[in-house]
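Box 3.1 A note on notation
Throughout this textbook, protein chains are presented in two layers. The first layer is the amino acid sequence; the second is a token string describing backbone geometry. Keep the layers aligned when reading.
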Amino acid sequence: MVQLNNRYALINAPAMGSYLRNLNDYRIGVELALLSVLDYFIANSESSGNDLIISSNIVYEQREYLFGLARKYHKREFDFKIKPGESLTIYDTLSTLIRKSRKSLEHSLLDSVELMSAHPEIFKRERIHPGLALTLCEVASNYEKIVPEKIKRVSRRYTKPDVHVSDKSALPQIQTKASPFDLYVHVLSQLYVVARDELLKMSDFLLETDETTIRSNKLLEIQPDLRMIGESLYGKLRPAVEIIPRKEDVSELLETGGISELMIDELSSNLRRIIESTKENTLDFSKYLSSNPKNAETFKGNRDLHIQNLLYFTFGDDLPKVFSINN
């Protein structure tokens, strides 16, 4: 077991502190997975000596988000322009991958903003990572939500480091992917790792908890997927704890001191979004390969274990024909 590393463990740790730490882990995981897109664009724009020409209007819609990530992680400035009169569907599919993964994260962040606004008392003593606070401010503003005072205070105290971005060429520092398709498969694989890690945290918590029952409608919803990834993919034992429905709403739960159950509910909501976006992204991948036989043929030689696990997590034993080696 992994009791010492269990990020959901509530022993000597406030429940909502665990919730915030795991939300921040999720945020960082998605952002780091998408940095490969930035590296690819930066390296290829430098190799051409000009702005990168992209054959897709959809990827262009994500440019401001990508530029924001570049500033956050001190990446070199770059730009790309639309190449008129031509369509390259892999960029459209990559953009959809970015959009759906980003949306899943942002809605989880918005949930925490609304919870903090409605019940500031349960976060009163919690420490919030500055990076999480800044991202919460940004997302709340984008969705026209009121930023909780605690988040505002943390953000105001944060001082951005004075980081100098080298003016040397980035090409020697960046491992470019051979093609946009290689980039897409790599990002899909990394986003699965993020999803897997978040789901395994809950799986380990359920194995190690001393509770005999946990009341959570939201946890009950995702139990089959937790079993798929924990038991089928990673050989874990089936948890002994019983998950049962709960009738109380949040206010009633707080009145009875059920902070731990509230944390489980909030984390389960985040995990449900992660599961949905992960499976949708895999279905998009299947549709893309079905329409692009050349890349489908190339993919048949791919033995990335994360991708293979992602396919099993989404399709089980009913693997679409396009993924079959013997197709």
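The two ends are 40 Å apart (CA to CA). Residues 1-5, 10-14 have pLDDT under 50 and may be disordered.
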